[in-house]
Design goal:
The protein is α+β, with helices and mostly antiparallel strands. It has a domain at 27-132: GTP cyclohydrolase I, C-terminal domain/NADPH-dependent 7-cyano-7-deazaguanine reductase, N-terminal domain (GTP Cyclohydrolase I, domain 2, 2-Layer Sandwich). Helices cover 16% and strands 28% of the residues. It contains two helices and six strands. The protein has helices spanning 74-82, 91-106, and strands spanning 27-29, 39-49, 56-66, 70-72, 110-117, 126-132. A four-stranded antiparallel sheet has the order 2-3-5-6, with helices on one face. A two-stranded antiparallel ribbon has the order 1-4. The radius of gyration is 16 Å and the shape is globular. Substrate binds at residues 72-74, 91-92. One of its GO terms (cellular component) is cytoplasm. Pathway: tRNA modification; tRNA-queuosine biosynthesis. Its EC number is 1.7.1.13. This is NADPH-dependent 7-cyano-7-deazaguanine reductase.
């Protein structure tokens, strides 16, 4: 019989964290740790606040990773990403901080995050960060978000 993952948020009513530092990002054991494969999370409605104006900033985030022993538990990831809604930070800070936090938690073979930010002030800012080396036997598709010509 499979062991239930030791998570605190899955299957429970959990309040939205007020801040990313308060959010609890959780992991579960990878049942296929002996196999290289890619997993993708897409958050097309990511929101944070401009740290200067307090105005909302919107992004389409794509997180690809090749897990090792651990997987990101998706409900905790959803709550973590939503905790940025009232958090003031620049686009680069949000994108890289999310990538680093996930990588520190699950220690994947490889992780990349693409932050495709909608323009404010007439300039879109796309931010990319990666860690690790993509195993040669893993197929990793393009992130599928065009360079800015209008997002949709």
């Amino acid at each position: 019989m499979a062991r239930k993952p030791q998570v605190k948020q899955l299957g429970r009513n959990v309040s939205l964290p007020r801040d990313p530092d308060e959010a609890e990002l959780e992991r579960v054991a990878n049942p296929h740790a002996d196999t290289h494969y890619a997993a993708r999370f897409t958050a097309p409605e990511f929101t944070s606040l401009c740290p200067v104006t307090g105005q909302p900033d919107f992004a389409h985030l794509v997180i690809d990773y090749v897990p090792n022993a651990w997987l990101v538990e998706s409900k905790s990831l959803k709550l973590y990403l939503a905790s940025f809604r009232n958090h003031g930070a620049f686009h680069e800070d949000c994108t890289v901080a999310i990538g680093k936090r996930i990588a520190a938690l699950i220690e994947p073979h490889y992780l990349r995050i693409g932050g495709y930010w909608y323009p404010r002030g007439g300039i879109p800012i796309d931010v990319f960060w990666q860690t690790g080396t993509l195993p040669k036997d893993v197929w990793l598709p393009d992130q599928g978000v065009q360079t800015y010509r209008g997002r949709g």
